[in-house]
Amino acid sequence: MDLTLSEVLSNDNSATLRGMQAKVAATKRVRPRRARSDIREALLESALVEFGAKGFDGASTRAIARRIEAHQPQINYHFESKAALWTASVDYLFGLLTDSLAGVIPADLTGIDVQNLGTAFAKGIRRFVRFAAEHPELNQIMVHEGTAASDRLEWMTENHVRPVFEGIRPAWRRLRDAGVAAPIDSKILYYVLIGAASLPYVNAPEVRLLTGRDPSDPTWISAHGDALVTILLPGLVVATV
Question: Which DSSP helix (H) or strand (E) runs through 197?
Answer without folding.
Answer: helix 186-202
